[in-house]
């Protein structure tokens, strides 16, 4: 049966029908554009993770890796009291660091976003927060030792003003020192996403809440914090991921008296126990991904960051 052509209404141009050849070329071009990044992603993320998972099921002795399938690495890890204590200690470091960085980062972001009116000063003070990142993490960690040591600057000042009668021993080579250094290293990663979220808040909402008689605490709790939850979620992902895998800070600031999962993996690698270290890495990856999934499920980051149709510039 032959088709009957239908005339288009006046003033309406008929839609151009793309040929199959044109569609195939467009699809091929899209794949070619995505190929370089996909190749980098596969080579530097997918393949290393897959190799780590495979090695975690291998056996080993004191000098070599034996490529035979075994569950002994995971059995020793899951039924070891030392491993459980190490994971709990790492999780404790992560929770304390997250809470302190959230408090400090939120306070700094709130000050920069709502109390500094000049955009120039906002940028200048934000850049000032990046000054510590001009040096490596190791240098910034080690720099705490002469400050917190038994004969360090802090103890000398406290002794001189008479606040203490003997040096404080807990300041260095302790869990306190580890958490202090972790907070110092990771506060910036919490502050930047929160500051970005606060800068997106429409200031007319603050004024409307104030005109309605809301106090400063009510505005903070009912307006600022809910509209900053995306930045809090992103900052939490950064901080938790970095702290859970950190081992240099724990080793240096605890003096070898505290343990973490990253330090346990580093020790296994030093003893050439690569399958055990790989099993530890896989378990740590699963736990970190589970924590990130909980955060993402709590806050829909993709929906919050998506531009709102018809919104103002502050909503974009």
Characteristics of this structure?
single chain; 316 residues; mainly alpha; MetI-like fold; two-stranded antiparallel sheet; 15 helices; 68% helix; globular; disordered C terminus
Task: Summarize the entry for a quick read.
The chain is mostly helical and 316 residues long. It has helices at residues 20-55, 72-78, 81-114, 119-128, 137-142, 145-148, 153-161, 175-199, 203-211, 216-227, 229-245, 248-254, 261-270, 274-298, 301-305; strands at 59-60, 65-66.
Radius of gyration: 27 Å
* SS-based class: mainly alpha
Low-confidence segments = 309-316
Order of strands in the sheet with most strands: 1-2
Based on the structure, what is the oligomeric state of the protein chains?
single chain
Portion in beta strands: under 5%
Large-scale geometry:
globular
Sheet of most strands: 2 strands, antiparallel
CATH architecture of the domain at 86-305: Orthogonal Bundle
The number of strands is 2
The helix tally amounts to 15
């Amino acid at each position: 049966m032959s088709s009957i052509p239908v005339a288009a209404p006046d003033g309406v141009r008929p839609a151009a029908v793309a040929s199959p050849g044109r569609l195939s070329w467009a699809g091929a071009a899209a794949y070619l554009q995505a190929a370089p990044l996909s190749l980098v992603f596969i080579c530097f993320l997918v393949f290393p993770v897959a190799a780590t998972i495979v090695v975690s099921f291998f056996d080993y002795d004191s000098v070599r890796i034996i490529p035979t399938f075994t569950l002994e690495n995971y059995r020793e890890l899951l039924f070891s009291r030392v491993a459980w204590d190490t994971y709990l200690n790492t999780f404790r470091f992560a929770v304390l660091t997250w809470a302190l960085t959230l408090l400090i980062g939120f306070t700094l972001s709130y000050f920069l976003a709502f109390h500094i009116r000049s955009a120039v000063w906002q940028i200048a003070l934000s850049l000032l927060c990046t000054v510590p990142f001009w040096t490596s993490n190791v240098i910034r960690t080690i720099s705490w030792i002469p400050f917190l040591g038994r004969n360090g600057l802090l103890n000398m000042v406290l002794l001189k003003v008479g606040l203490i009668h003997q040096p404080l021993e807990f300041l260095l080579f302790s869990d306190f020192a580890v958490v202090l250094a972790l907070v110092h290293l990771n506060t910036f990663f919490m502050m930047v996403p929160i500051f970005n979220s606060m800068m997106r808040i429409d200031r007319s909402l603050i004024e409307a809440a104030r005109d309605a008689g809301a106090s400063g605490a009510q505005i903070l709790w009912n307006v600022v914090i809910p509209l900053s939850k995306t930045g809090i979620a992103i900052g939490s992902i950064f901080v938790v991921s970095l702290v859970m895998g950190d081992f240099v800070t724990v080793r240096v600031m605890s003096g070898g008296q505290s343990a973490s999962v990253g330090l346990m993996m580093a020790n296994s690698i030093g003893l050439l126990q690569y399958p055990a270290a790989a099993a530890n890495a896989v378990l740590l990856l699963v736990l970190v991904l589970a924590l990130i999934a909980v955060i993402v499920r709590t806050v829909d980051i993709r929906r919050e960051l998506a531009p709102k149709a018809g919104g103002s510039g502050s909503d974009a």
